[in-house]
Amino acid sequence: MIQTPIRRILGVRIHDVTFREALDIVDAFLAGGGAHQICTVNPEFVMHALRNPAFFQVLEQADLNVPDGIGLLWAGRILKQPLRERVPGVELMEALAARAAERGWRIFLLGAADGVADRAALRLRARYPSLIVAGTFAGSPRPEDAPEILERLREARPDLLFVAYGAPQQDLWIARYQPELRIPVAMGVGGAFDFIAGIVPRAPRWIREHGLEWLYRLIRQPWRWRRMLALPRFVLAVLAARYGKGGTGAGVG
Ligand code: UDP
User: Most buried among 19, 30, 109, 144, using CB within 10 Å?
Assistant: First the structure.
């Protein structure tokens, strides 16, 4: 098994993995059997987890929490919890689809608005023609919709399940149903289907490389401003943990 150091950012558990290591870990999950959960942690996740014990617990138990977001790498430096590399959720999903095509893993796309998972699957199939899409379904994270979703997933028997209900709903949903589903790898991917389907444009590469994707998203999707207040709150919390009274920020609460 690959060594994955665990870091704590404001107490929240994150694996210090590189992009390539994350892919190899998924290979090992598939080869080793059992059911796994992957979360793509960003500063919004951390702030949410500090207020929501159920979500905090999901992150404690997940098999892999990748550092998705430049803010986490910055916080890792400040808090002496070093994270080597950003592992963006969308890019990890795309790379996993490529690997699924090579290995013959069956993928299932659950979530996003009606028709979006389908479009994302078509785009992925166009890129990786041997990709096996076991199914797509919008569904919803509401408990009353779970029976139908579980039924579809049991029939489709995917190896990789991508769930796009946004955080924390998607991650809570996976943690709630994975014990009965026992899918080898289930991963929450936020708005990834919208990006892959081409409904929401991704920031140009130079913006991403300068760590400004959050600003691009704020300008393109201004209705997100309220949620994005999590970012300045995160920065303040990290600085308080480092320079305020008592502590390195490595402990919980
Ligand atoms: N979504 C959904 N059902 C819900 C709530 C959200 O399918 O009840 C989808 C929504 O269509 C979008 C994704 O979840 O595709 C969340 O995207 P967002 O950009 O908000 O997530 P983030 O990447 O910020 O976690």
Answer: 109
For ligand 1, atom 4, the nearest C-alpha belongs to 165
3-state helix, strand, coil split of the chain in percent (to 5) is 55, 15, 30
- Rounded mean pLDDT of the chain? 94
Mutate to test the pocket of ligand 1, among 42, 173, 194 (most ligand atoms within 8 A of CB): 194
CA–CA separation, 2 vs 211, rounded Å?
28
* Residue nearest atom 3 in ligand 1 by C-alpha distance: 165
Residue stretches of the chain with pLDDT short of 70: 1-2, 245-253
Longest CA pairwise span in the chain (Å): 56
Return d(Cα 102, Cα 87) in angstroms, integer. 21
Whose tokens are 């592992």? That residue is: 87
